[in-house]
Structure formats: C-alpha cells, structure tokens
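Whether sequence alone determines local backbone shape is best considered at the level of individual chains. When preparing material for the folding task, we compiled for one chain both its residues and its backbone structure tokens. The sequence in question and its structure tokens are set out directly beneath this paragraph.
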Amino acid sequence: MMRRVLSAALLHLCFCWTASVSVADYTETTAAPGDVALLPCYTSGNVTPELTTWVKNGLEVGRRGEDSPGPPDDGGRLAVLHDGSLNIRGVLPGDEGSYLCSSTLPGNRSFQARVLLQVASGPENVSTSVSPATSLSNGTLFAVRGSLVTFNCSASSYPSQQLTWGFTGASSSNASLVSSSGSWLDLRIDDIQPSAQGVYSCSARNNVSQQTVNRSSELLVYYVPDQHPDCMWALAQDPSSVQFNCSWFGAYPTPRLRWRDDDDFQVTDSLSVTFNRSLLSDGQTVKCSAQHQLLRPGEEKQCSFTLKLPFPEGEPLATALEATSVTLTCTEATSIPPANTTWRKGMQQDEIVPGSKYVVSEEGPELKLTILNISKEDEGVYFCRSENPLAVRELEVYLTVKTSSSYTGAIIGIFIAVLIVGTAGIVAKTVYSSRHRVCLGSGFGAAAEPHCPAVGQWALSGGAVQVCEQLLGPKTYYMSCQLEEDRGDVLSLVESDDEQIFQDAVPRLPPITNGRHTTLVQIHRIPSSDHEDVETADTSSQQQEDTEQTEEPEDLVTF
C-alpha cells in the first residue's frame, strides 16, 4: 500500500514537472572562424535562471548555477552568462553543431531551447580568367577589337555563396553585369569594342557570413585601322625645303612611326620631318613605316611617294596684233611635291603682278597670263617658272607684236596663191574630162590632111580616114581618124591583141545630103593561135591568111 502511495506521488510530481517545462523554438546562429558566437537560451523575459546547462551532441559543454561546479576545462572559450546564454570566443570549425539549453526558472519552472551553430567558411580559392587575351608585363590584359571574349569566375564558400561580375569603365561605373549562386560564373561579350575597355571585377560573397572577396582584371581593347598610314607634304617658307608628315590615326595603343630606314621608331600617331634640296633627288622614293602590337613580328604598314621634278609645258612662240590681247598658257602637272608656278617677264625675270595690264588665272594645272591692250613694249620673252623642293624649271615664251599694216602683204600673197591653185585645178579638170579626144592636124576645124601622131604608125585607108596601130606596152591599139568640119579631128582607140597593121582599103559610103563624108571602119581581131602561125609562115602564106580572115572575120566591129 505504501508503495502505491509513493508511486502515485511520484507520478504526480512528474506530471507537475512536465507541465512546468517550456520548449522554445529552434534557432540558428552563424559565426565565422575566429568570431565570437552567442547562443541564446531564455529570451521570453528579463528573468535570471537558477540553473542553466548547455549540452552538445549529448555532452555537457557549460553550466551555471549555485551548485554548478563551473564550466569545463576548454581554455575559457565557452562561458554561460547570467541570462543562460552560451558565449563562444574564437569560434572554431569544430564548434559547429546543435546545442540544447536547459534552464530552471524561479517558481520551479523549466525552460529548454535548441540552437544550431553554423561555422561559415570562405569565400576561398577565388580566381578569374579572360580569354582570348594577352597579358602585358604589368598584368594588364588586352583583347583584339571584334573578337569574342569570355570571362570566368570561380570560388568556394560554406555554406553558400553569391558570385557577381561587375564592370567599371568610361561608359559605366560599378555596373553589375551578371550574378549566380553557383560555384562558377561566366560572362561572354561578342564583338568586343573599345567601349568595353575597363576593369572587370568578380565578387564572391558568403551568404552566411556575408564575407566578400573581389578579384579584378583590367582589360584593354587593341585595334589598328585597315588602311595604311597617310603620307603628305607641306611646303616651307624656304622653297628649297619641304616638310613630310606621316600620320596613322585610329590605332590603339599609339603606333610607332619612322621616315627613314636608318632612323629609330617613335611612339606617335603623327611624325613630321623636314628635308632640304641637298637630300632630295628626282625619282627618289620617300617612305614612312608604322609598327603596332597587333601586327605580326616584322610586319609594317607603309606609305610612300616618288619625287618628280617640275616640267612646265606650253607653246614657245606667240604672236599678237597691236592694241589687242593675248593669252599665254603654261601647264605643269607632273611635279611631286607640286611646284609653285609663276609668270615672269624679261631676261631679268621680273615677277608679273596682276592688274589692269596683266590678268593671271589658274584652271587646274594650267596657269594663264592674259596681256591686255598689247603694244610694242610688250614684245619680248616671258618665263613660266615652276619651282618645287627639288629644282627650278622654266618655260620660255617669246611674244611677237605686229602692227595692222604688216598683214596687208600677207593677205595679198594668200589671195594670189589661192587664185593660182584654183586656175590649175580648173585646167587639170578640163584636160582630164577630154582625155579621150586627141586633136590631129594644125587646129580645130581646119581642112587638113590627117596624120599619125609621133608615136605609133598610121595606115591610110582612103579619103580622110586613116587607121593607125599604136603600140603601148604589151597591148596593140588600132585607131581611126575621121575629119569632120564641126568636131575637128577625132581619134578613136580600139584595143586588140593583134600586132599586125591593117592595110586593106576601107570602102567609103556615098556622101549624104549634108555634104559630109562617112567612113566605115572594119577591124578584125586575129586570135593568138593564128597570130603565131603568121609569124612562122612565109610572106605569101601570110597574105593568103589575111585574105581569108578578111573574108571570114571572127569579130567584126563597125563604126
């Protein structure tokens, strides 16, 4: 019976104790290694617990109360404060874990709280890389304009981290480009341009401890222009000197230039040198060379030009009439550098000043001098003078001034020459048009006996008609002549391959009513084969064959 009473009393006490125990919510506390961590226990009011005990993983790590023996021997890093909180100085990674706080409050009340302590680490091993990029001696990176550039950042943190790429440059400052909570982060820029030149920073932040680590890289964007350097010249005050300018703008970083092969390169985008006439010659090639980091080793960009002497061109003689005007023209378009061209007068080469007497005009490469109201005093030599840094060249022009009376003789002479040429032309045309008519006898219309010309041979065929054989080259011509009162002597020419003279009598037709005689001429053509037979046969045979040919002609021509 006593046991039952004791058991019931014990159960009543346990029930009362259980009913007086309160349990707080689960809390988390984070600390970095080396920091001080404070683990709270009773936070419901300003009450000092009578007894507080801290347990980690089943092991007591701290106690505070009237009858407590004191904290464990841990070098004084852990201590239970008067409000029951556990203070950990110089947190170590081993301090991480779950802690249980048990406190006895006044009024025989109990309180329990659980605290999770996390010891954060990192960010660690933060690294960045930029590719493709080339590192300079000072650690600065550079990429080529227009290329694809990739930025990579990696780090490790516990329990978690945040990675961010930022950019600081001329166009923006502290701009966040991309962010991630992973262990690595990539940034990609397509067709990178000079505006993307600046400092790129990767920030790794521990999400628990808020500790942040930054890694930065300065990136430069290099570029060179596609064209070659520009070579130019500028004439100095001294005409025997010239200044050559070489410029190559649009390159980064600044290129290196030089004019002569034996000179040193200079870091500049514009280089000027001065040469005098003693260092220059006709046909000499002047060259400017440029170097840049983006060019291959030994590769150079160049510009050049070839020097040329001036060469003024124009008419050396000019003539003008008094009281008129004349224009002298000089052209100079070949000199390099361009020559300074002027007009000068007289052997002393006095420079001509434009005014009411002289007008100087320039049209492209032509330099014109117009002289107004010309007089005899303007007659003489004029010089077109061209000078460039290589030499001086001159064109001499002589001007002749004539009075109006001096042109009278020339006009008369021209008239007479034209008259003679015209008369000769008319005579030649008349002769040519009458070339088929040959006059025989003493004159037109005279009643004379026809005769053969000096060349050839005539054969009389009776009356006023004659037949003549004319030998002209390889051909034989037979001609007949008829005397007519109104036409004179008319000669008709007939071609034949025969070389034989016709001596047969030509019958005469009876006279007509008008009293004129008409002659019938028959010309027989002898074939070449028969002609050969005539040459080999004797005289009697030849006469017989001629008679037969006359009786039976092959070709008959009747006039």
